[in-house]
Amino acid sequence: MKAIHHDRYGPLESLRSCDVDKPRVAAGEVLVRVRAAGLHVGDCFAVRGAPAPVRLFTGLLRPKCGIPGFDLAGEVEQVGLGVERFRPGDEVFGAAEGTCAEFVAVKPSTLAHKPRDFSFETAAAMPTSGLAALHALRDVAKVQAGQQVLINGASGGVGTFAVQIAKSYGAIVTGVCSTANVDLVRSLGADHVIDYTQQDFTRCGPSYDVILDNVENRSLAECRRALRPDGLLILNSGSGATGLGLWVRLLKPVLLSPFVRHRLRRYLSTPNAVDLRALSELVSAGRLRPVVSQVYPLAETVTALRQIDAGHARGKLVIRVAEWA
Fold first, then answer.
1. Helix 157-168 and helix 273-284: axis angle, to 10°?
2. pTM, whole model, 2 decimals?
């Protein structure tokens, strides 16, 4: 099968389009013919093997999989022994390792049926970023109607979902983005939009009950300045630091939180079928609109990853892996 692949950790340019073995389906797995694969910054980390903590998941010395991509939408090709929820021909979306390939073996626990009104590209944009936003706002923040919620990085992959999910809970939402993306963030339902090139969100606005920081380009002290006394800061960015500085950045909020009034949190978002269906229901209800800014062919995966790595991606970038009838 065709896939984008690398044997060693290295720059994005180390990825190559090549033929690799089609995965075999074990008991309890589903083989999916991938039609589209969603990308996010974690794919860049996985190719490089950096920051270092990513290797706990991708392989310590060499990549275990070697194929980028964690999000997918496609059609069930084959089901393994014991799988009852899916059958060949079902259109599905979800999360798996190595989705920039024509086929991938997926655990049913990270897969859901694709609603009929979704395109494959739209569905592939949702799993990782949509669930990251959902888990932050629903599970960590437990956002309530009337709360003031600020989303830093509101025009990015997670941010575009977060603005809409917070609004669906009845929050008063402020989005922070660049000048070029103000209209986009406003169109997603944000009550207020702060252009960071013109205003400093840590100084210019009201205090917030919840800040979801997808950028982490401001210090903890600056972000806490924008919180209400009992406010919650959720940190969700793995870029911008290396070496010892990375570990300080990751651990400092967790260690500081017990000693201050503000709640400072990091979290892990784990894909699961139940919450994939929750995202689907939000879309079907008209409360959530995945933003797909560009679709690339499989051969241009490196180009798409470069755009994400540079921090210029607007919404989600998606790889069209295979055409369909």
1. 70
2. 0.94
